[in-house]
Amino acid sequence: MALLGSRARSYSMLLVLVVACASVFSLVSAVETTKGPTTISSSSFISAHTSLQLLSISASLSIFGVRWTSGRLTESLQSLFIGGAFLSVGLFHLFHVLSYPGLLESSPYISSDVTTYFHVIARLVIIIALLAAAFLPFKRPAEVSDSIMIILGAVVFTLLVFYVVVFQADSLPSIYSENGRLTSYGRGFEYTSVFLFGLGILVYSCFRRVRRQSAHSYIAAALVVGFFGELCFSLYSLASNLVNLMAYCFEFTSFLILFLALLKESVTMPFGWLALTWRMHEKDQGRLELKTKEAEEARLRAQAHLDFFAHDVSNIICPIVSYAEMLLAGNDLTPQQRKHVGTILKQAQRGGAFVANLRRLADAEAVSPDAFVGIDLGRVLLEVEGFVRSTHPTKIISTTQALPVDTQAIAPGGEHVEGVLYEIMKNAVEDVPEGPVRLSITLRQVRNEHGKRCWQVCITQFDHEFPPETLAEARVIYDPRWGIGRGIASSYSFCLSIVSHFGGRLWIENLPKTDKTQNSRVTIELPTADTMMDLSRGDQT
Amino acid sequence: MTGRMFIVDDERTVVETLREILVMNGFDVLGWAYSGEEAVRKYASFVPPPDIVIMDYRLPAKNGVEVMAEILKLDPSARVLFVSADMNARSIALAGGAVGFILKPFGMREFLATVQTLVRKDGS
User: Fold this and answer.
1) Domain that includes residue B48, residue range
2) B66: which residues sit within 8 A by CB, 6+ positions away?
3) Residues A321, B114: C-beta atoms closer than 8 Å
4) Cβ atoms of residues A506 and A523 within 8 Å
5) How many domains does chain B have?
6) Chain B, 18-77: which have a CB under 8 Å from a chain A CB?
7) Rounded Cα–Cα distance for residues A425 and A415 (Å)
8) What number is the ipTM of this complex?
9) pTM for the whole thing?
10) Could you tell me the CATH number of the domain that includes residue B82?
11) Which domains are present in chain A?
12) Maximum mean pLDDT: which of A24-33, A63-72, A296-305
């Protein structure tokens, strides 16, 4: 409907314009025919002519200026071509005004022929350029090279014409007689021009239907006005006739319409789209903020639900584990019952670990990297070891430590890394049901595979091996080289976050078996950090 | 090894389990409470006060840290051991004055080891 409305409006506008121009033209022609040619005084004519021509020059150069300065706002090669042509047109009109009788009469090169040639050529350039532009691809983007070529072409063409008209005037046929009338050549140019303007109206009217470009409507309108201007130019018998002055008025009006066409296409419409896009962008921004807020609220709700879930499941598991341990501590069970209670205990512990790990993973997702403050790994390792000893007083734990003596081993991760180290040592102690637990803890600075400095913590457990399924799960989850997956074995999930944000690695392995023993090792590599600034920047590998 | 214990947890089965573990291992359980208000009221009635209060973090109406603050106001020498499924509660509880923290779900051995360590420290 909007399109139909727009098309109907442009048709109406054209029709009104044709009727108005035809009325004015008919009126002036009728007056000229019935009362004879109306001639105004030479001085008045020159003043009026110069004023109208200066307006036309301004309009021509504005057409060029609008297209040139709008740059990449519009991507139309067609409008760029028209803009370039009007640079020539403006200059030809300027030459026409300057060479007009009464202005530069002292120059030996100036004559009425020269003056008239500039004006005729200017009008021919307009109609030929508009006809050529009609066949240029409207939507083809104009490159910078196109702009330069068109401007250079316009300037070179203008200078060439200027040279021929001014300095080679003798070789051109005379188109204006000294008695103030056009010669037969001059009439020929005028009729050609009228024909071409008529052709232009037909072409743009057809193209306007096919291409549905609003600029085409404006160009067609300008051509209608220009056509009546050309008719006026072909009718006058003396330059100072009213009909000649009328022709200049039509000419200026058609330039003005073309200027509006270019202004609309090169400035108004792009800015309109920009404003529309901006409004849509603002709306989308608002929607995005709303969705982000909703997502955050949903995350918090999910976190709260998970907290309740973990709390309730933990409360269910606690008595199962405790009573199973109580039964195993007593002597009332048969070997078969002891085996079954052991399975219940193990499965309950796995369930508890699963819930705890699920919570850790959720916490890891929620923690901002900014919260990963630096910690001294050496100090933390000693504290964690002491804590594990205190919570497992019945265990015989022997450790050997190799920690840096004279330097702090600062790494990102804060209390989350502390939690991971606690999990590793606790698991190491609890994985050995009977007998002593022998651990070796080393902390040293190494360069990783990318050549970056990092702290490497190795916790080796003697006389212990990881089952193959544990190795597979841990490898999938923690080693970025294998891709980061998130299975249910989500222990050490904070390290996953740390690895994602800061770089580093965490892996487990069984060491090569010797004749006497099989040992296993957990290794964590975290990037070194000297200051808080280093942490916030994130020393990514 | 002996000591006077007070259990605060909203889960009756957990209270029952902890009570059994403690009694079986020679501890004296002075009482238990299922809510924060009940806990503060009962704590004020104990003479002498318990050696250790075993406190859950997630309680109805008031959380464990708030209840601990009220108990510490009544008795600054009170020693509170937190048990919670919420790892994040650890730092809050320790900062609020708790003497220990056990992450749920825990087993009898881990719980006993922690309680015994605290009682030993208290005795020394």
Assistant:
1) 4-100
2) B36
3) no
4) yes
5) 1
6) 18, 20-21, 24, 58
7) 15
8) 0.85
9) 0.53
10) 3.40.50.2300
11) 9-284 (1.20.1070), 370-541 (3.30.565.10)
12) A296-305
